[in-house]
Amino acid sequence: MQHPTNPDRRNLQSAAVHLMSLCAALEHDIPGTRLRHLIGEWTHREYPLLLPRPSSFSLTLAGVAATPPEARSEAVLTWAGSAWADWSAHHERVRGWVSDALPGPSGAA
């Protein structure tokens, strides 16, 4: 979620789907194996350009990569939470997409 955002259709899909996957994982406890399947379902839709984009990021993947291997799993979880928080201006919209896209009442997994 830290790559450039532009109006190219594939970029719009990428930004939206990756934010949806962060929301689904962090707020709905959906495991990675299920997310991989859902991402495939979510990709082929139209999404808007999400502006404003965060002006900076709390933690980058470069910071995760610099973490010692034994601490990397925790660093990835921290990065995911910070990336989701950095996009807080769009949480309600993304939550709505996730709710609409997940089966069951109110997006229950």
Topology of this protein?
Elements: H1 9-28, H2 32-43, H3 61-65, H4 72-86, H5 91-101
Q: Output mean pLDDT.
A: 91
Instruction: Give the number of DSSP strands.
Output: 0
Tell me the number of structural domains: 1
Tell me the structural class: mainly alpha
Helix content: 55-70%
**Low-confidence regions:** none
Number of helix segments? Answer: 5
Alpha-carbon distance between the two ends: 23 Å
The biggest beta sheet is recorded as: none
Percent strand: under 5%
Quaternary organisation: single chain
Element-level helix/strand string: HHHHH
What would you report as the Rg, rounded to the nearest angstrom?
14 Å
Structural shape = globular
Quick description:
Helix content is 58%, strand content 0%.
Description:
The structure is a single chain. Helix content is 58%, strand content 0%. By secondary structure, it is mainly α. The chain has one domain. The chain is globular. α1 packs antiparallel against α2 (32-43) and α1 (9-28) packs across α5. It contains five helices and no strands. The model has no long low-confidence stretch (mean pLDDT 91). The longest helix has 20 residues, at 9-28.
